[in-house]
Amino acid sequence: MNSTQPILQSIQLSKSFSNNGIETSVLHQVDLSIYPGEFVAIMGKSGAGKSTLLYQISLLDVPTSGDIRYNGATLLDMTENEKTRFRLNTFGFVFQDYALFPELTTVENIALPLMMRGQSRDDAYARAMEILGDLSLTSQADKLPSQMSGGQQQRVSIARALSGHPEILFADEPTANLDSTSSDEVMELFIAEHRAGRTIVMVTHEPEYAHNATRVVQLSDGKIISNIEQKVG
Amino acid sequence: MKQWIRDIRLAGFLAGKTLSRSSRATLVLILFIMTLTFMNLVAVSGILVGLIDGGNNANREQYTSNVIITRLSGKTSIGRTPEIVEYIKNNPYVQSYSVRYGVGANIQAGFMNRSDFLKKTDSINTQIMGIDVTAEDNLTHLSKYVKEGSYLNPNESGYILIGADTLKRYNSNFGDQFDSISNLYVGDKVRVTAGDKSYEFIVKGIVDTKVGEVSFRAFVPTSELSLLRESGSQNASEIAIETVRPEYDKLLQDSLVRAGFDSDAKIQTSEQAIPDFLNQIKLAFGILGNMIGLIGLIVAATTIFIVIFMNAVTRQKYIGILKGIGIAPRVIIWSYIFQSLFYATVGGGIACVIIYFGLVPLIDRNPIDFPFSDGILSAPLDGTLIRFGILLVISFFAGLVPAWRIVRRNTLNSILGR
User: Fold this and answer.
1) Average pLDDT over chain B, rounded to whole?
2) Which DSSP category does A61 fall into?
3) Does any CB of chain B come closer than 8 Å to the CB of residue A127?
4) CA-to-CA separations, B302 to A148, B38, B297, B343, B390, in angstroms, rounded
5) For residue B288, is pLDDT > 90?
6) Which of A89, A104, A118 is the closest to B17 by Cβ?
7) B45, B246, B358, B366 — which has fewest CB within 10 A?
């Protein structure tokens, strides 16, 4: 295990859903620590609770019990507005279905969170173009999501997530909807970001991409059944 | 404060992009509905009120002008007419005026061919007005309303102008409520009898308007009327005065009162001279129009609400994503409010253009033909602005409520659409 303090921790985290009075438990008292600079892959079968865990620790959902701490401070005391602002300033998100805003061009999609952070439109656009250049996506700058392939959209989604220099990048099955070539390109971006020191938490069900992570967390029936550090080449 | 401005700007950015890049057909349809809604709001009550306003305008243009001086109740004429006329002549508020002398008289047609003296005469009792032919035409453009024959000539004598509603062929729509002359045409001779004086005139023209004070009367030059009046009296029945500007109406009235003429005559502005029942009808029509307008407003609010709600529901995934990536809920809500205000503003704006540059001039040129008035579309700008303001307020809430309902949902549930 890493000797430094964890950047993000889930402590005895549980999540259950109620449907027609029937309580379904999805996560059972999960303890997980994410350390700075780690690339953590969360794996498990369908229904194991891996996406649910990601949503809880990234503050997209509210756990039923337990705690989530960032640099030792609990996050669950925050109001919804505070959580939104925290996500904006601290986290980056890559969703399975890209989640780009359909009426915004590539550059606008990337600039949007930067403008929310307070950057002027010009500065936000300049930063967006810079990161598009880094990801070799400059030619897509003025395209709408509907005018791009799935792989291109996912790379734009990653560009948006990285544009604000997040402390932690969360990715929920980022290659699930992509062909193998596009998946490889997307994974290359994650590897490059990790090498640059970014903390990444990625949910995946594809072992070949989990091999790129420094740690693989296996979930089954809402519990961590293995938590293995691995060497990355 | 700075944060607030930033949020508003970002909301405007989101709203602008959403509007400019969403389906054109949907946008056009929504704007079309909003345009119709606002037109309904303004035009329906405008036409109802316009029926009365049209009558009032005609009354002012053709009868009272801006200020009307009439005899006091119980008097037969305006006292001290020469002094009043002298005062008006030198008053800076006055643009023009017309002095009318009236006498109650009987007009008899067909008297030259009358063979059966047991049959009722073809006649009517009405007011004969002696007018300065030129001054009256300058003031009320009386000649414009001559439907048959021609207007009086100041250099001719022995001619009379007959109001159309004294003739059966014009006033048949009033039924048997009024006496009328059955058989009288331009060029015919009529015998006019006032008291024990009688004089014969040739009908020069028939004047037809919807102002009763014009079309139920007959007109001769003032000099001709003296043949029918008591000798010696120089007092008039009416003095209609046009002011330099409408704002001077009250000032002129006040100055006439200050000069002491209110003890000789009743001095009224054109608005004050409107019969009370007409004001009551106008009020009732206004209330009716507002009730219909209120329904229009509810329809408008419901339309915007449905549009925004459907928009927000179908896009709740994206709302969730926006929240997920850190866009503040208030920014998302404001973006929907802006969209709602856009629909209302542009729809209302298009409706205003259609109303003020299309419907109002069109109906002014082709008034709606009602028995008692030529109906116009009464759409005073202040009233329209108030309705526009109300529409904007309603649009604000119609945008706010659905957006707020969707935004306050759990972020993840929105993203996953559950």
Assistant:
1) 88
2) S
3) no
4) 37, 13, 8, 13, 14
5) no
6) A104
7) B366
pTM exceeds 0.80: no
The H-assigned helical ranges of chain A are 50-57, 80-90, 106-116, 121-134, 150-163, 180-195, 207-210
Q: Does B22 touch chain A (CB under 8 A)?
A: yes
Q: β-pairing, A223-229 with A215-220?
A: antiparallel
Q: CB of B344 within 8 A of CB of B304?
A: yes
- Token readout for A93 is 């998100």
Asked if A61's CB is within 8 angstroms of B324's CB, the reply is no
The answer to whether the Cβ–Cβ distance between B412 and A115 falls below 8 Å is no
Interchain pair A144, B21: CB under 8 A: yes
Q: How far apart are CA A88 and CA B105, in angstroms?
A: 92
**B114, B183 contact by CB (below 8 A):** no
With 0-12 / 13-18 / 19 or more C-beta atoms within 10 angstroms meaning exposed / middle / buried, residue B4 is exposed
**A116 and B326 Cβ atoms separated by less than 8 Å:** yes
Q: With beta carbons less than 8 A apart as the criterion, state whether A160 and A100 touch.
A: yes
CA dist., res. A188 & res. A118, Å (int): 30
Percent of chain B with pLDDT over 90: 50
Reported as a single tens digit per residue, the pLDDT across A105-118 is 999 999 999 999 98
